[in-house]
Design goal:
Distance between the termini: 35 Å
Number of helices: 12
Structural class: alpha/beta
Shape: elongated
CATH topology of the largest domain: D-Maltodextrin-Binding Protein, domain 2
Helix content: 25-40%
CATH class of the largest domain: Alpha Beta
Oligomer: single chain
Radius of gyration: 19 Å
Order of helices and strands: EHEHEHEEEHEHEHEHEEHEHHHH
CATH architecture of the largest domain: 3-Layer(aba) Sandwich
Strand order of the largest sheet: 2-1-3-12-4
Largest sheet: 5 strands, mixed
CATH superfamily of the largest domain: Periplasmic binding protein-like II
Length: 329
């Protein structure tokens, strides 16, 4: 499989001229989910000998849901659950959906590898750094922690249409989308990788896959959830045992019910669930237990509509919690 992290802006997997003929599955949304979907789309197209084309766009979770709820896409990649406003928009447009968790991600806080003084950070310290009140005021590292140097802070983070931005702000600041605005924001995680890798005083955040792909250029920061708890690095083990909190999260695809009636979309969704564990592990996300993918296949077969999250973005959901909810849908 080719390096899926290069040139995300050119991520569409088919040439425009090819779209006039044959069957097409249209996908858009989260850059975090993109590596899994792109890898599976590539394998699927090879299997179908390009008789079915799969396009994968990256406009962020929020941007993807806007297109999805207008009926412009068949599948929406999402790094958080669908929110109430998006549910209302979909309902108004007559768009129903099947929610399918496909993996867990360890949202990763990264620093420059030449940074020798930042060994760990508490959630409270990250909040001081990122909360709206910090804008234009918390500009140097020693303003967050006096033990840190008197050096300028340079921040990089996901754009406002990103589900990663929503989740990070909810988990760290306490309210979704509540953030200082004076940082370098991008829906393209490679822009963030480049920014942090070029500045010793930089800190950023994005999905674990982008850190894993760039470990020679970045350093992951251990996170302390609460006072008295140990600092924990993001990893498959820390996600599975529930210790990497509050930045461990499920990631999803949403399938339009009308699109599911098209054989090519149903076949792709089923193929994705069959291949998600392998590809997720390959790109350094945490696969769900086999039971989760079986439940997903049942949800497709029975066209189980709706979400188990009630229109809210929740922090601290563990794999066992997710499985229990999905089984009851």
């Amino acid at each position: 499989m080719k390096n899926m992290f290069q040139a995300l802006a050119a991520s569409t997997l088919v040439l425009t001229g090819c779209l006039a003929h044959g069957q097409v599955v249209k996908i858009d949304g989260s850059s975090t989910v993109y590596p899994i979907t792109e890898g599976i789309a590539e394998d699927f197209q090879k299997m179908k000998k390009n008789a079915i084309k799969v396009t994968v766009g990256i406009s962020g979770t929020g941007g993807g849901f806007k297109k999805f709820c207008r009926g412009e896409t068949d599948i929406s990649n999402a790094s958080r659950p669908i929110l109430q406003k998006e549910m209302d928009d979909c309902k108004a447009a007559g768009v129903q959906y099947v929610e399918l968790p496909i993996a867990f991600d360890a949202l990763t806080v990264v620093i420059n590898p030449k940074n020798s003084w930042l060994k760990q950070a508490t959630v409270e310290e990250l909040k001081k750094l990122w909360e709206p009140a910090a804008q234009g005021k918390v500009m140097r590292w020693n303003q967050v922690n006096p033990a840190w140097p008197d050096a300028p802070v340079k921040l990089f983070g996901a754009g406002a249409d990103s589900g990663t931005f929503d989740y990070f702000t909810e988990a760290i600041v306490g309210k979704s989308k509540s953030s200082r605005g004076d940082f370098t924001a991008s829906e393209d995680d490679n822009v963030l990788v480049q920014g942090v890798s070029q500045d010793v005083n930089a800190l950023g955040f994005f999905g674990y896959a982008y850190y894993a792909e760039n470990q020679s250029r970045l350093k992951a920061l251990p996170i302390v959830e609460k006072a008295g708890k140990p600092a924990v690095l993001p990893s498959e083990a820390s996600v599975l045992d529930g210790s990497y909190q509050p930045l461990s999260r499920p990631i999803f695809i949403y399938v339009n019910v009308k699109s599911l009636a098209k054989p090519e979309v149903k076949e792709f969704a089923e193929y994705m669930l069959k291949g998600a564990a392998k590809i997720a592990k390959e790109v350094k996300y945490v696969p769900l237990p086999a039971k989760a993918y079986t439940i997903g296949q049942e949800h497709i077969a029975k066209v189980k509509k709706g979400t188990v999250f009630g229109g809210k973005n929740e922090v601290g959901v563990r794999i066992d919690d997710l499985l229990a909810r999905e089984a009851k849908l």
